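[Discussion] Sanity-checking designs against the backbone

I'm trying to build intuition for which residues belong where. Below is a structure token string of 218 positions. I'd appreciate it if someone posts a full sequence so I can compare it with mine line by line.
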């Protein structure tokens, strides 16, 4: 599995990463969501460079121009609810894409441990399609692997891009181990070192779903 860490090269992406991490800026949920979208748009542009293209003619008012355009649109998939703003950033650019949504959550036990539960998946046929699966945080990596394997019930993608904004090294290693040999590229905006005993990334940014849509009761 190829891993691309985008903030290893300086770009405007770093400004949006700073803002989604900043505890003061985070208080503006609309700005938080828009910054997540912006990051999605930037990564969508980077992924588009790896797609297959075909030349098409277009009639202008003065003649005919040749333009290289993607052969096919990808399937965009995300994990509810935290992934929605990031997903929207991809949909802003791949605006003709089919979409897939995954309902997943951490089910905690009394001792504080948890397991990932998947309740529902909606997905088009994935055979010979490009799949882009995004979730803003990659902590342990278990939910991402579970989501990917569950999507395979809808077909075998030609290529998969897994996208996350903040990842920890442990989560990346988990994906490399459990998705070894798959035609997958992992796109990460920034990598953090630590993971707490409750599987929160440090310094991370907090709960992306709560920051985007408000604190949940349970």
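Best answer:
Here's mine. Compare freely.
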């Amino acid at each position: 599995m190829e891993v691309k860490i985008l903030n290893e090269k300086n770009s405007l992406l770093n400004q949006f990463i700073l803002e989604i991490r900043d505890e003061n800026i985070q208080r503006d949920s609309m700005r938080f969501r828009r910054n997540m979208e912006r990051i999605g748009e930037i990564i969508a542009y980077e992924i588009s460079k790896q797609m297959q293209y075909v030349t098409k003619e277009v009639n202008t008012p003065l003649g005919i121009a040749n333009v290289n355009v993607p052969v096919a649109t990808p399937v965009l998939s995300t994990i509810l609810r935290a992934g929605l703003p990031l997903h929207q950033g991809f949909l802003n650019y791949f605006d003709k894409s089919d979409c897939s949504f995954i309902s997943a959550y951490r089910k905690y036990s009394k001792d504080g441990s948890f397991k990932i539960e998947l309740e529902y998946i909606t997905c088009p046929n994935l055979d010979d399609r490009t799949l882009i699966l995004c979730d803003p945080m990659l902590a342990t990596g278990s939910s991402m692997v579970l989501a990917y394997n569950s999507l395979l019930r809808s077909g075998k993608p030609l290529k998969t891009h897994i996208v996350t904004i903040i990842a920890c090294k442990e989560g990346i290693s988990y994906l490399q181990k459990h998705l070894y040999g798959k035609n997958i590229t992992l796109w990460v905006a920034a990598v953090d070192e630590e993971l707490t005993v409750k599987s929160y990334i440090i310094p991370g940014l907090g709960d992306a779903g709560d920051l985007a849509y408000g604190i949940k009761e349970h």
